[in-house]
Amino acid sequence: MAAAVLGTIVIYFIASLIRHQRINVKLNQEKVEAEIITLENERRRIAADLHDEVGPMLSGIKLMISSLEVDNESGRDRISKVKEYIDHSIQRMREISNNLLPAVLEKRGILEALHQLFVECQKVHGIMIQFSYDENIMLSSQRQLHLYRILQEILHNTIKHSEARTLRVELLKSNKSISLYTEDDGKGFDIQDRSQKGKGLGMRNLHSRAELLSGNMYIESVPSKGTRITLNFPSHEQDSLSKS
Q1: What whole-number distance in Å separates Cα of residue 212 and Cα of residue 92?
Q2: Is 231 helix (H, G, I), strand (E, B) or coil?
Q3: Would strands 128-133 and 166-173 be described as parallel, antiparallel, or unpaired?
Q4: Is 191 within 8 Å of 221 (Cβ atoms)?
Q5: CATH class for domain 109-234?
Q6: What are the tens digits of pLDDT across the range 64-91?
Q7: Where are the beta strands (DSSP E) in the chain?
Q8: 219 Cβ contact list (under 8 Å, min separation 6)
């Protein structure tokens, strides 16, 4: 009898621990999601301000400068230089605005947005990106944004740290899941050492986004042997915590 009572107490205690752990995990996930939503809303606001206010302002300044009448060659050269600076500023503003909120992602979807992202990276940074994908991938707008930000972060880290010449990206779909694979031929790094020294912010950002996709992410890297990243997540939105 005592053994049965003790067993019941132990089972109840273990069940309570599991329940509290699930609650804590869910609360942490909700906190991360709220932080990311706040960040994305701020990015959207800044992108809108750049597009709707700063862009027209710069274009207006260029128009006013173009209308100036200057009698000497030196003055005309200076006006030409100023117009070049304004054109460069407008182009840079558009690039920043697009990084904050890529319009093509909302208009044409994740695959077209990734194509554009990779083409721009190849043009600006000289890295060769090999992109293969399943054309039947369908995701909600929010999940497309999370996936886009993950690849944006991977690209940023690869370009900034890896010294890679080539990055291979695969986006594949099975019956119930989607898999992302990336692999570069860069110098790699010691994952444990980077985490211990507090330099793993990029990796934490990746894992946070992966959690919001209800996915699992694995990062493999060895010094001088490149970096491989695998992300698997369900093809449809689900609350994995509530089903546990």
Answers
A1: 31
A2: strand
A3: parallel
A4: yes
A5: alpha beta
A6: 887 777 778 887 788 888 888 888 888 7
A7: 128-133, 166-173, 177-184, 216-221, 227-234
A8: 191, 203, 206, 227, 228, 229
Are 235 and 171 spatial neighbours (Cβ–Cβ below 8 Å)?
A: no
> Measuring CA to CA, which residue among 236, 108, 115, 216 is closest to residue 174?
236
Cite the DSSP H helix spans in 101-236. Answer: 103-108, 110-125, 141-157, 191-196, 201-212
Cα gap 214→62, rounded to integer Å: 48
pTM: 0.71
Rounded distance, CA 6 to CA 99, Å?
59
DSSP 8-state class, residue 170:
E
Helix (H) or strand (E) holding 41: helix 2-49
Which residues have C-beta within 8 Å of that of residue 46, sequence separation ≥ 6?
100
Instruction: Give the number of other Cβ atoms within 10 Å of residue 229's Cβ.
Output: 24
| Radius of gyration (C-alpha) of the chain in whole angstroms | 24
Q: For residue range 125-134, what is the model confidence (pLDDT) as tens digits?
A: 899 999 999 9
* Contact between residue 118 and residue 132 where contact means Cβ atoms under 8 Å apart: no
Q: How far apart are CA 150 and CA 209, in angstroms?
A: 7
